[in-house]
Amino acid sequence: MKHSYLIPALVIALGLTLAGYFIGDTFLRGKKFDRYVSVKGLSEREVPADLAVWPINIVLTGNDLQTLRREIESQNQKVYQFFMDQGFDASEVTRGGANISDAQANIYNSNAQYSAFRYLAKSELTVRTSDIEKLQRSLDASLGLLSEGILFGSKNEWQPVEYIYTGLNEIKPEMIEEATKNAREVADKFARDSDSEVGEIRVARQGLFTISDRDANTPQIKKVRVVSTIDFQLVD
């Protein structure tokens, strides 16, 4: 009878031993998996803007609407022709509408009766081009329009010309690769200091790409930046 209980007991003992081994091995593997370092990798580039948008306001004043209308049409044509003479294509220059305000109709302007001009007219025109150098030359040359009595300027005083970079998708893969290499270099330094080696990537979190002006004086040069956060496994 004793032999009949011995074999099942041995099987149970062996099973418990194997279960303990596998549980312990799983625990050790889990502890090793917990050994990792989280680092950030940076990639930055300076790129020239490839699109410029210049919104323009032409401003006139007067007391006679018919005269003001003729002046608006004349000045709009002169400004439009100026850009044509600068080498712009018709598709790069868009004429907008005209807005005329009556000072005497403004109930909040108590001094309207003392104003020298009753009407204020603003006419819009937008230049949109990928030829940044041509636009910058036109900015300098546009001062000559003042000598013709044309008062015009950028619609957006805080940002006279908007410079845009549209080629982000072309440089994204290289910048992500560069950020990953930068992160590994940081992880390698940490691993050497802790007598370990860098293993595989555990988790990778790509940051957002940001595009900003290099500085306030050169908005046509853009700084593209991305920061990736990567967890690397550490091994002995």
Give the helix/strand layout.
Layout: H1 2-33, E1 36-48, E2 51-62, H2 65-85, E3 93-102, E4 119-129, H3 132-141, E5 151-154, E6 162-164, H4 168-193, E7 197-205, E8 210-213, E9 221-235
Antiparallel strand pairs: 1-9, 2-4, 2-5, 2-6, 3-4, 7-9, 8-9
Q: Would you give an account of this structure?
A:
The protein has helices at residues 2-33, 65-85, 132-141, 168-193; strands at 36-48, 51-62, 93-102, 119-129, 151-154, 162-164, 197-205, 210-213, 221-235. The protein has 236 residues and is α+β, with helices and mostly antiparallel strands. It folds into 3 domains: 1-34; 35-50 and 165-236, Protein of unknown function (DUF541), domain 1 (Translation Initiation Factor IF3, 2-Layer Sandwich); 52-164, 2-Layer Sandwich (Alpha-Beta Plaits), CATH 3.30.70. The strands form 2 sheets. Strands 2, 3, 4, 5 and 6 form a 5-stranded antiparallel sheet that branches. Strands 1, 7, 8 and 9 form a 4-stranded antiparallel sheet that branches. The longest helix has 32 residues, at 2-33. It is elongated and about 115 Å long.
Task: Give a brief rundown of this model.
The chain is α+β, with helices and mostly antiparallel strands and about 240 residues long. The chain contains 4 helices and 9 strands; from the N terminus they run αββαββαββαβββ. The two termini are about 50 Å apart.
